[in-house]
3-oxoacyl-[acyl-carrier protein] reductase
Amino acid sequence: MDLGLKGKRALVCASSKGLGLGCARALAEAGVDLVMNARGAEALEAEAQAIRDEFGVQVTTVACDVTTEEGQAQVIEAAGAADILVNNAGGPPPGMWTDWEREDFIKALDANMLTPIALIKALVPGMMERGWGRVVNITSQSVKAPIAVLGLSNSARAGLTGYVAGTARQVAGKGVTINNLLPGIHATDRADALDRGVAEREGLSLEEARAKRAATLPVGRYGTKEEFGAACAFLCSQHAGFIIGQNILLDGGGVNATL
């Protein structure tokens, strides 16, 4: 299937590893030139060079903390007239509701709600002027099915979801789509960190903790960044212009719901 993306330009945040890297690679395979962002310069440049070598697209790297005003200014300048924005940031730490204070919520909001909104506000007007654009926000399955120990993530990502629900319908008439991808358990560093926590609490090995969690999924395994990236690339494609303001689960059937 031709995604119709050859020659487009995308900003992909937090794309040196995990789901962000999966999205960057899938877009590059479709012929999209990239602006890749992450905090760690060495890992970021290594993955960017691998993409250049494999897919022959142009890749600009911006090593910065995109949750800061300075970092946002850097990626916005590098993105220029971007056609595609993929918002992504690591989730806040797990805990219990009694653990979190105001500052914890502010940090979660900055990373998982306010930064995506700032980038949308910066890049979407240009997309509207040009009559075409795609925004994909990587949120979480917890938006549909809250996870108790991830209350900070539940809260911040739900806020972004509400913002997108209204905004997507205001810009759709100008050829710009905004949608959210809701990952469940994927084989990423984030999953490793959560599994290590379970292993320590329950006296299990890391492998045992992974197997125990994988067994809770109908598919019986974790998702891959390649699967996730392919879904992102489709949402960015010429075929997805009628998908507006949606929250699409990629969770291996983990959320047991009819709608």
Residues 98 and 189 are 26 Å apart (CA to CA).
